[in-house]
Specification:
The structure is a homodimer of 219-residue chains.
Chain A lengths: L19 E2 L2 H10 L2 E8 L2 E12 L2 E5 L4 H4 L6 E15 L7 E15 L3 H15 L12 H6 L2 E5 L2 E7 L17 E9 L3 E2 L11 H4 L6
Antiparallel strand pairs in A: 1-8, 2-3, 2-5, 3-4, 4-7, 5-6, 5-9, 6-7, 6-8
């Protein structure tokens, strides 16, 4: 796969093209930091957008088929999807309403999602979903059995046609507006993990393992 | 408008129907807490999903047209969209991989988005977008002038066909898995606002006003 993705007419960023990023590593970094994606697909011409978790293994993105049961009805030969991951970093307060904005990093991937048939790849897809959310968790959980694997659909979306859009930094006002007397700046936003809450049926002698207790990835 | 929305075949929650919410006030509460939505629409049969800010005024949702410039090419008579707002509340760690989940609240609105033509409604739409993100900000900013209003498209989506899905609480494992020796519980997630960062060109004597400094809405 190339290190970057020449934008197609479909992925070229139309608005604010200076915010566009087509670099594969930069896109992976955004993907790896997100918790959920929003999957878009059509049913009878009506768009649907469903939030779901995802994983990445190399140049493939995996999502749970169950998240989009409507989509799966028509999935035999693959279905056009758009997967979008957005990280919100701050509120950008300008002098003028018009120049208010947000700091964010987002990735849009277009392509055809197909059901993973090979059992080994399906297990690997589920592992990537689990490790994406919480590295180390897979090793400490009861792995899927045959019945569960059968009941689960994993979808593969090759990360081939993609673009990212990034806005960071202070507000940019029209020059004449800098004289307008109001506070301007950024309110940074961050997703933080709070102290883990043990399930009531979790024996008290089992304390939260390192991968849970040390969970402090900034989001 | 009715207080709840009888699910249509399109909005009826198919997976985990016990998580479904069709109550209008509950849906408004989720909408009012979110910062961004993901808008889904089609261009030549390809789904697109774009993150953007939004506002709500009564029974209408407003979004910036600029966020979806691709969509706007075909907007004359309205275009089918799906607007989804997702709040992520926690990671749910079960004993089995299969029963891992997330705590979340999400809303899906289906409908036809149309461009707001009436100048008064357009201004009101922009005000709702601004006040949604940061209540009090509209009054302290330089309001849109005629040129800016002309350059802005606001889209109206009536909140008519909608559903919400909510998952909260501890993991639910298969009964036989409770004997599996691993920690289980929830890692709560929260979006927090950090201390505001003043723009370098903001005069030091202008301190952050109440609506910025006291910004502590939990997200």
């Amino acid at each position: 796969m190339p290190d970057s993705c020449a934008p197609t007419t479909r992925t070229r960023v139309v608005r604010e093209p200076d915010r566009a990023v087509y670099d594969r590593e930069a896109v992976y970094k955004i993907l790896d930091e997100g918790f959920i994606c929003h999957v878009g697909f059509n049913v009878d011409g009506q768009p649907f957008v469903i939030p779901t978790s995802y994983g990445r293994a190399g140049e493939n993105l995996y999502i749970h088929g169950s998240a989009a049961s409507r989509m799966l009805r028509n999935l035999d030969s693959g279905i056009p999807v758009c997967v979008t991951v957005t990280l919100l970093d701050g509120l950008v307060l300008a002098r003028s309403i018009f120049n208010h904005s947000m700091n964010y990093r987002s990735v849009v991937i277009l392509g055809t999602a197909t059901a993973v048939q090979d059992p080994a790849e399906k297990l690997e897809a589920l592992r990537s979903l689990s490790e994406h959310i919480l590295p180390g968790r897979w090793a400490e959980s009861r792995h899927p059995n045959e019945r569960e694997l059968k009941a689960t659909t994993a979808l593969r979306l090759p990360i081939t046609e993609f673009s990212a859009k990034v806005r960071q930094g202070p507000p940019i006002d029209d020059e004449e507006d800098y004289a307008f007397r109001t506070w301007a700046g950024v309110i940074p936003l961050e997703t933080v993990a709070r102290a883990p809450v043990a399930d009531a049926r979790c024996p008290p002698e089992i304390s939260a393992p390192g991968h849970v207790g040390a969970y402090s990835r900034k989001r």
